[in-house]
User: Fold this.
Amino acid sequence: MRIALFGNPNTGKSTIFNLLTGLRQKIGNFPGVTVDKKSGVIQIDGVEHELIDIPGVYSIYPSNKEEKVVYELLVSSPPHQRPDLGIVVADASNLARSLFFFSQLIDCGLPLVLVINMNDIAEKKGISIDINALQQAFSNTPIVFMNARVGLGKDRLLTAVKRQIERREPEHLKVSNSLKKLGDLSGQEEEAAQRHAYIGKILQDALHVPKTSIRKNSIDRWLTHPIAGYVIFATILFIIFQFVFSFAAYPMDAIETGFGWLTKGIKNVMTDGPLSALLCDGIIPGISGVLVFIPQIGILFFFIALLEDSGYLARAVFLMDRLVRPFGLNGRSVVPLLSSMACAIPGVMATRGIPNYKERLITIFVAPLMSCSARIPVFTLLIGLVIPKMKLFGFIHLQGLVLLGLYVLGIVSALFIAWIMHLILKQEKRSYYLMEIPEFKRPLWRNILLTVFEKIKVFTKEAGGIILAISIVLWALASYGPSDQRSEAIASLKKTTAYKTTSSAEREGLKNAVLLENSYIGIVGKGIEPLIKPIGYDWKIGIALITSFAAREVFVGSLSTIYASGDNDNEFKLLNKLKNQKNPDGSFVFSLRTGISLMVFYVYAMQCLSTLAVVKRETKSWKWPMLQLFAFGAMAYLGGWICFHVF
Amino acid sequence: MLLNELKVGDQAKIIRIADDVFRTKLLEMGIMPGTLVTLMLRAPFNGPLAFSYENTLLSIRNEDAHNILVEKKMTHQ
Assistant:
């Protein structure tokens, strides 16, 4: 049996969904739209049923693309695709509005169960509901009370669902003649008025609300205050970032060390050969490269879910909307964009809450321009290389100022591109910002942890495969090459005096450098030299650029290999080695202008396969990630060129 | 007067809503001529505003509030 779960936003629908299905949830697709279909399994008397979580709406007539799902599922789709039964969640403190949607669902001919979700707020306000009077008005629909946040009434609900499964009797209401077509505004308006009148009459007997309930909003006045509001928001973000950067590092290190041990173990057991190399240098680092994102995704979503579930997020959206709207963004874009300063992957995944498709697309598109944590090692290395350690006016560190400048450049560019897209992209319909600001409530750990779990699962399942595949391809290209060319190069290396006179560890480094130079990636890196020469890079930097497609920070490791600095972990040694590198004409490779050109290149270039995979997953098309790859690539090149010629 | 001309704390009755799509959306949410609303919050820099009706605090953009004609009932003391 297919059971659909309906309800207005903020009625506790997801809490009920989580309560009923727990960990037995999966994510699919509603046909034809970019909306995720969350479904789960519920068991009633040993029989399993599918429970589908339908997006929260106020009416079956959609006001945006995502909301179309409801109308299509119930009205346009062929009968065998429609659900067999519906559970409608009504909010006790907003009963009239909940019953409006309920009455529309009745007219779809679906057998229903009505849940009246009593929450503490409704109780505090002294709202009382006469269930018998309601039951008389809707005689074919079992009606149950629940308090989902404390887990009360689950069994009552399941019993009611079971009863309705056995009887499957739809309600007969027919307030209006029939449901209207999409776009028939005056018809919908007339219908809405009739429904309100009908429900109003029923609630006259069934609902009692004490007169005095005027809502206090002293906290909200502070949270949306022109100064205090922004200070509070900035403080909260600061705390979140502290947690992301200080806590995510431990599990990330643990994952990398763990996989390092695994590789060593396998190398000890297996004999050297292509299979062992594929496993130890291709597949295992690939898997590790996917899993290493999980701590950041987990921690960020823990906080985002906490902000959402407690009700603060709505205040932040309310506060920020005006500031970002000139750029075609929504108040809801702010948290995803700021999250992207830790990592664009959770940032892109967090755009789910943006109701307007165009605004969501713009947010996803520009998110990778926000400077993420993987750029930090690249920037640190380059700044150490070319920016002198000096102070301006005696107290401003020039190196720090440059780093700040790179972050600002990323943010400004993100807003600029957003603004351009805002001008280019067509809006299908005028967007309305209609957002309920829920009352503050104590967050529910089950909801938060299930969100974290779901995001991690979606990332590993749907983006992980692509990331793994591409990183294996990159590894293969970096470790294989035309064999005669490679053996020739090694042979001529062995004849050089530099090789003969050095230690065995240094020899290993020199050999690795020659091997990388003569790998397929090395050949490509040399091949693109004419292309990158105008922006100040030689083929060695070219190789590092290509390998860092696996992840930006790989740039540092690749430079270390290619310049045979031997000890990969010693940054000081690497820095010195790089500083002294000279071009054939005697000038330094890492001149100020090459360094700045590279920094700007890394601000823009879409060098993160994982982000591309996640953007594909969220937009359900390769069009947008490809556009990001080429557009940001062009900006990186142009920016690099300008810097190389200005400095 | 228009909804966005109210001061925080003012209560008003909705008289008319211009813009067909917006009116239908609000009607589905239970906001129609005759509904009593109280202006509760204003975001800085002419940002969105939030009004309460029944038991809900709803925020809309300032320019959309231009479409809502209201009659002031009670001034905030």
